[in-house]
Amino acid sequence: MTGIVVASANGRIGIETAVDVLRAGDSALDAVIAGTRLVEANPEDHTVGYSGLPNLLGEVELDASVMEGRGLRAGSVGALKGYQDAVDLARTVMDELPHVLIAGEGAARLAHETGLHPRDLLTPEAETIWRERLGTDHDTQDASSRYLSRLREIVRATASDADLASSGEPPHGTVNFLARDRAGDIAAAVSTSGWAWKYPGRMGDSPVIGAGNYADNRWGAAACTGRGEMAQRCCTAHSVVTFMRFGLSLEDALRMAMTDLAHLDDPYASEMNIVALDKDGVPGAASTARGKTYVVMSEDMSAPEERTRTIVPVEGAS
Ligand code: ASP
What we know:
Elements: E1 4-8, H1 12-23, H2 28-40, E2 62-68, E3 74-80, H3 86-96, E4 101-103, H4 104-114, H5 124-134, H6 143-160, H7 162-165, E5 175-180, E6 186-192, E7 213-216, E8 220-226, H8 228-234, H9 236-245, H10 250-261, E9 272-278, E10 283-287, E11 293-298, E12 305-308, E13 310-311
Parallel strand pairs: 3-4, 10-13
Antiparallel strand pairs: 1-5, 1-11, 2-3, 2-6, 5-6, 7-8, 8-9, 9-10, 11-12
The structure holds aspartic acid.
């Protein structure tokens, strides 16, 4: 059986390493973590790990999760501050604790106990983007009303302006990695710094198993990028896997999960993207927006292939 890895487009930097892990005969879980780690360390990606865009207070808070399709083991961390290796910490939660999700101070405490290296995650460049887009002085005292109206403007502008959305500086983003190894085991990893200017402590879909990440060897795997609150309310990643369980093709499962989003009452509705892998290792991806891509590489390919996602327009979430 040939191993395969599928990732969101910003996973390009890590996908060859992930495939090399499979080529070495290691597990899908090792592969998705190896790929994700490189994105977390990439200073040019302001949506994941080091140099991620910060929350309302200017603090970078990371969310990440891992899931294994064999036995549905899972671990995740949310609102992690001061450590870059969120995906490794998610694995530690899965492997070492009788829990699934650890957040905030507890996550930082676990990172310290585990021996991860603390790091100031806010780069000057990310701080500049954060200040400029917020468009106000950094006064957080009367934050909520001004913040909410400004955030809505930013979300709307990004959602309706394809150039801004793909400008390389979107106010949000996430990396998704899914893999199937030679043994037929499937795994998923997701990591993000979440929405810039998010309310402190806000966690998106990425650390919520079933919302932003799901893997089940029997049916396949899925992971999301985009407005996390939508995936949380629709259990989007789990839905895709469940629809495949009920006999839908991967493409139809993606479409149905996207269609569910249309029923949300959400004034902040924005883009949603899903990558998926069926149980046989066939990849696919969908987006509510035009021009979105993802990357695929199997063990027998010499380089990753960037493919266009199926567009599933969802009113209010383009
Ligand atoms: N899903 C991420 C979140 O809501 C952001 C993104 O992928 O754009 O935190």
